[in-house]
Amino acid sequence: MDQETAKKLLVEGGTFVFLGVPEETQFGIDMQCWNTEEDFRGIKMIPPGLHYVHYSAVSKGTGDISPRSGFMHYFNKKEFLVKMWDKKLEDISRDEISEESIQRLKDNLFNLDRHLAPYPYEIWQKWKLLTSQVTAELAAKLSPDNGIIRASVELMSTTDEDRPRGVKASSKSMESQDSNSEESQKEPETTEDDSTPGQSDAKRAKRITREEKEDSMLPDLKPAPGTSIRFTEIPRDKYPPGSTPEEITKHYLDQSYTLELMIAQHDEPLHIIGELQFAYLCFLIGHSLEAFEHWKNLVILLCSCDDAIHKYRSVFFHFIRTIEVQIEEMPEDFLADIVMNKNLVYKKLREFFRTAYVSKVDGRLLTMIERFKENLTEKLQWDFTGLDADEEDERPVIVKLNEEGD
After folding, report:
1. Angle at which helices 197-217 and 171-184 pack, to 10 degrees?
2. Which residue of 28, 89, 191, 206 is surrounded by the most CB atoms within 10 Å?
3. Is the separation of the CB atoms in 315 and 272 below 8 Å?
4. What 3 state SS string does 161-172 have?
5. Cα dihedral angle (70, 75, 79, 83), rounded to 10 degrees?
6. Which value, to the nearest 10 degrees, does the dihedral of the CA atoms of residues 311, 138, 261, 361 take?
7. In the 8-state DSSP scheme, what is residue 330?
8. What are 211-231's pLDDT values in tens digits?
9. How far apart are CA 368 and CA 273, in angstroms?
10. What is the DSSP string of 343-369?
């Protein structure tokens, strides 16, 4: 860090004081992580903006590392944030620090300063690219109610009162079973395959009852209240109500309508890119597989749009900038899976490039798309040739309908 930057951050940078953290605890901010020493008290010279503070307790006896936890926080200029470690929970304390205690720490900043590690400024430029569209308001909106992002979400089972052991047959199953018992007393009506409607219905009723019974034996686990990341739900309906079969097909091929519904749930269109960035960071840094699935689904959705590319040029401009940086930081094993198995991310990126080719995207956006495609080919050896031809498994299936009487 040059002297001018250091002086500026000393004056304007934020400070995060973390008291009572045990030695050897894994602690990090943004993309950097360390094992703490005995005299560790926090981080200083934090550039104003959004940051991700994370930590993992480490067992002294075995060295086992607990799943990572953390929180997003937007540091204002000169902000002084104080948190405590809870020894019993081996986690960050939920207790609020009094203003008096915070003021005492500020007054003792000269002695505290030598126990504070400087922010790893070498990662700052990359971090700004990874969080360019995540505002403080969006981070608060997407974070769990309790504010803590965990790699392993805390699960809880329902009480015995809410979920008694055993399961009562549903009314439909009971009706079906009653009708079957009546049917079984009658002469079976012979059909072409010698099966009877009564026997078929009875098997169906038994199958439903068995599934319900097996389900009742499993614990009904669900995330503890306030612990889940509040991602925007991707709509299941891919087309407007009342759509004709032709319109339904169009909306499945071009999912701009679904993207519109997602954007409508945000304060501004670019927040959909902010959510893509937030999900990626919760996966990359927070080790959340749930976040990875959401990131992947958002990438697939954005790559499946045609009309929206022209309507939301700014969104797709930032999509290219974002995913280009994200793929550079992607763990090698995930990249290897994309390359070797040609999974949905690869296929959808290929589809996205083909859409840009067919839709005649122009100007700066086209330049960015071409550069992104070339970089993927050069760095990862991904093959994007033949975009004007359909993949073998993407060609439309022609179904011949038999004429009446055949």
Report:
1. 140
2. 28
3. yes
4. CCCCCCCCCCHH
5. -10
6. 20
7. S
8. 566 656 666 667 677 789 999
9. 16
10. -HHHHHHHHHHHHHHHTT--HHHHHHH
The first and second tokens of residue 268, run together, are 């501004």
Are 282 and 291 within 8 A, CB to CB? yes
In contact, 131 and 138? CB cutoff 8 Å: no
d(CA 183, CA 197): 9
Burial call 300-327: b when 16+ CB within 10 Å, e when fewer: bbbbbbbebbeebeebbbbbbbbbebbb
Q: Per-residue DSSP letters for 50-103? A: EEEEEEE-B-TTT--BPPPEEEEEEEPTT-EEEEEEETTTTEE--SPPPHHHHH
Using N-to-C axis directions, what is the helix angle for 271-284 and 256-264, rounded to 10°?
Answer: 90
Q: Which helix (H) or strand (E) element contains residue 26?
A: strand 26-29
pTM: 0.79
pLDDT in tens, 39-94: 999 999 999 999 999 999 998 888 899 999 999 999 999 999 999 999 998 899 98
Cβ atoms of 266 and 232 within 8 Å: the answer is yes
Give phi and psi for 42, each to the nearest 5: 140, -160
Burial category of 283 from C-beta neighbours within 10 Å (exposed 0-12, middle 13-18, buried 19 and up):
buried
Q: Beginning with the edge strand found earlier in the chain, give each strand of the sheet holding 42-46 in spatial order.
A: 91-92, 80-86, 14-19, 42-46, 116-118
DSSP strand pairing (14-19 vs 42-46): antiparallel
Q: Which of 389, 295, 301, 307 is nearest to 356 (CA)?
A: 307
* Nearest by Cα to 155 from 200, 212, 220, 211: 220
Question: Are residues 260 and 275 in contact, defined by beta-carbon separation less than 8 angstroms?
Answer: no
Cβ neighbours around 299 below 10 Å, total? 23
